[in-house]
Design goal:
The complex is a heterodimer of chains A (335) and B (351).
Chain A lengths: L1 H28 L4 H6 L5 H10 L6 H13 L15 H36 L4 H15 L2 H15 L21 H7 L3 H38 L2 H8 L4 H38 L5 H11 L2 H29 L1 H5 L1
Chain B lengths: L16 E10 L7 E11 L4 E5 L6 H9 L7 E9 L2 E2 L5 H7 L4 E4 L13 H13 L3 H14 L5 H6 L7 H13 L5 E5 L7 H18 L2 E6 L2 H7 L2 E6 L2 E7 H6 L4 H8 L50 E3 L2 E3 L24
Parallel strand pairs in B: 3-8, 3-9, 6-7, 7-8
Antiparallel strand pairs in B: 1-2, 1-4, 4-5, 9-10, 10-12, 11-12
The chains are: A mainly alpha (335), B alpha/beta (351).
Subcellular location (chain A): Cell membrane
Family (chain A): Belongs to the binding-protein-dependent transport system permease family.
Membrane topology (chain A): Multi-pass membrane protein
């Protein structure tokens, strides 16, 4: 197992290296550019040239890449030119990362806590009204565009009803920072009002972000339970006269959840795509919002750090899923 | 295998499980109802092994699932009586039946790999029955589970308790399933094609094991199989099923010596025999169950029969009982209407 993990981590280094090269070239091929983004359209050619030189963008790509790689290996990923001008790009990542983790955590929690039980119930009551209704709801969950849902929720619950805050991570209150996970900080420092406030800020974005993972997890769970219910070993369990609780938990769910684990892993990896839209709509200061902002500013340094970090997260999440899979499925362990 | 101690009293004594007029009708929405089992009656006494023999679709597995209360909750109608020691199992609530399954009635299945939960250790799959019916804790049940594995001939039971099904061989898996079914010492054991998925050498071992267990514990065994070799080695009484009905019943020796229903005759004729002439062709039964006539006003087997007479296609044959044997046929083998030259099955193919 340890060898497996080490091998996968080494693979990740390779993946990140290739990605860094492709990303570097690709970003610089985008129309527009850092200089136009900073100076605007009406800048004089002289000032443009001066800034190009100052940023080192006048040199051939391979020279730029080589310089970038050398600095990156020492932990220096360059300075931001647009999101927070002058700030170290990696520091921006560090600033923003906890917000996105916190948001993603709650979103995936909602998706799992709703998706798995509902998927199980829908399968047990196949073709019932409940089953049909929840399949339709989950279809809507996938089909409705994230930003549309975000606006809808925001309009009703924040603007119209005023139950929840419109945007941001926390109101302007004096809160102690420990981990930069605001809810956790509030709980750790016993500043309950701060924790509650941060939590309220999370509700709408988390619901928005959870819709697609919820729908996918629901459908996979339902399909998987349906399949397992027909398995011979469930009949064996019935023939032993076991209680429904044991049959459902030990024999049906434990087997049905195997494919669900893989799905959850993929969905966690995919959360970032949803986070870009969700965070932008709710002005939630996480990675997603920073990415959107970095794109419009053509902030190469920040884009590179954030995209690479996302890729690394994706690989690590998948590694965790594979390890988890081996823990729950003995057949994988011995293979 | 020698004649067993119980063989003598199988013909007398109180029946432990008495199935009378059992019918199972499947009806899907908007489809014609289909009688998978149609008025089946048989009995099994303690220590007796009764075979239900027939090809796929003859209703033998549905019969066993109906007795166990394991048919799907919807889409079927079960009628008749399954009298287990004075209680009609078919009348029990699903909760009461659940209390009996695994305790009074055990069942083992055809494919041992798919019949075991792949992600739960063997030990837990044995102890869960004891926990459920004997009120034992997992810890207290483990030694008993170990004893059961040992009893069914699984070597190194301590290690196997912790193993998962995929780590066991096919024969060991079937032994583990038997251990689970027998953990609470059920009085009736239903074995649904328990050897079909196994190698021939393993088959013999499993049959031997089942035979020994029945002899030692006095368990009543219902053996469901399509394999007459299994019947020859194990069963005291044989019920041959066709199209959802029993078409012939007899004691093992009688049935093998002189099969009277053309279907039984055909089944025996389609087994290769070591003592037969070299190059002697096997005689398959032509057609398939798809050719069956409805029992309502014909013999279902008539289209595949080698000696049908007119009445076979116009009248339902009655079930005529005569002591230990019974027959449902208008024109039995060896009767005046029958063929004169019959293939000879006089020798019992005993193991």
């Amino acid at each position: 197992m340890l060898r497996f993990i080490v091998r996968r981590l080494l693979q990740m280094v390779g993946v990140l290296f290739v990605l860094s090269l492709l990303l570097f070239i690709w970003l610089r091929m985008l129309p527009g550019g850092t200089v136009s983004a900073i100076l605007g359209d009406r800048a004089t050619p002289e000032s443009r040239e001066r800034l190009t030189k100052a940023l080192g963008l006048d040199e051939p790509l391979y020279v730029q890449y080589w310089r970038y790689l050398k600095r990156a290996l020492t932990g220096n990923f360059g300075a931001s030119t647009g999101v927070v001008p002058g700030r170290d790009a990696f520091q921006i990542f560090i600033d923003r990362f906890p917000a996105t983790i916190e948001l993603s955590f709650f979103a995936i929690l909602i998706a799992i806590l709703l998706g798995i039980p509902l998927g199980y119930l829908a399968a047990r009551r196949r073709a019932s009204l409940f089953d049909n209704a929840s399949v339709i709801v989950s279809l809507i969950g996938v089909a409705v565009p994230v930003f549309f849902l975000a606006f809808l929720l925001k309009y009703f619950f924040a603007v119209k009803l005023g139950w929840l805050p419109v945007s941001g991570r926390q109101s302007n209150i004096d809160a102690t920072r420990v981990t930069n996970f605001f809810v956790l900080d509030g709980l750790m420092t016993r500043e309950w009002d701060a924790a509650w406030d941060a939590f309220k800020h999370l509700i709408l974005p988390a619901i928005t972000l959870s819709t697609i993972p919820f729908a996918v997890i629901f459908r996979i769970t339902r399909a998987s339970v349906l399949e397992v219910l027909d398995e011979d070993f469930v009949r064996t369990a019935e023939s032993k006269g076991l209680t429904n609780r044991i049959i459902r938990g030990r024999h049906v769910l434990r087997n049905a959840l195997l494919p669900v684990i893989t799905t959850v892993g993929l969905q966690v990896g995919g959360l970032l795509a949803g986070a870009i839209l969700t965070e932008s709509v709710f002005s939630f200061p996480g990675i997603g919002e920073a990415l959107a902002s970095a794109f419009s500013h053509r902030d190469y340094a920040v884009l590179q750090v954030l995209i690479m970090a996302s890729a690394a997260t994706f690989v690590i999440v998948n590694l965790i899923v594979d390890v988890l899979y081996a823990v729950v499925d003995p057949r994988v362990r011995t293979r | 295998m020698t004649t067993r101690a119980y063989a003598a009293d199988t013909r007398s004594g109180q029946a432990l499980l008495s199935v009378r007029d059992l019918s199972v009708v499947f009806q899907r929405h908007g489809e014609q109802p289909f009688a998978a089992v149609d008025g089946v009656s048989f009995e099994v006494r303690p220590g007796q092994t009764v075979g239900l023999v027939g090809e796929s679709g003859s209703g033998k597995s549905v019969t066993s699932l109906a007795i166990m209360g394991l048919l799907p909750a919807r889409g079927n109608r079960v009628t008749g009586v399954a009298d287990f020691d004075g209680t009609d199992l078919l009348k029990l609530s699903s909760g009461d039946m659940r209390d009996r399954r695994g305790k009074d009635l055990g069942m083992i299945f055809q494919d041992p790999l798919s019949s075991l939960n792949p992600v739960v250790p063997i030990g837990v799959q044995v102890t869960e029955v004891l926990e459920r019916h004997k009120g034992m804790s997992r810890k207290a049940a483990m030694p008993k589970a170990r004893e059961m594995l040992d009893k069914v001939g699984i070597p190194d039971p301590d290690r196997r308790l912790k193993d998962y099904p995929h780590q066991l061989s096919g024969g060991m898996r079937q032994r583990a399933l038997i251990a689970m079914a027998l953990a609470c010492e059920p009085r009736v054991l239903i074995a649904d094609e328990p050897t079909t998925a196994l190698d021939v050498t393993i088959q013999a071992q499993i049959l031997q094991l089942l035979g020994d267990l029945v002899r030692d514990s006095g368990t009543a065994l219902i053996m469901i199989t399509h394999d007459l070799g299994v019947v020859a080695g194990l069963c005291d009484e044989v019920n041959v099923m066709y199209g959802g009905r029993i078409v012939e019943r007899g004691l093992r020796h009688d049935l093998f010596a002189a099969p009277r229903h053309p279907y039984t005759h055909g089944l025996l004729g389609s087994i290769p025999r070591l003592d037969g002439q070299r190059g002697e062709p096997l005689i398959p039964i032509p057609g398939s169950v798809a050719d069956n006539l409805p029992w309502d006003h014909a013999c279902a087997f008539a289209p595949r029969c080698f000696q049908p007479i007119d009445v076979c296609r116009s009248q339902t044959p009655g079930f005529v009982e005569d002591g230990a044997s019974a027959l449902r046929c208008h024109n039995p083998v060896g009767s005046p209407h029958g063929h004169t030259a019959q293939p000879d099955h006089a020798e019992v193919n005993d193991q």
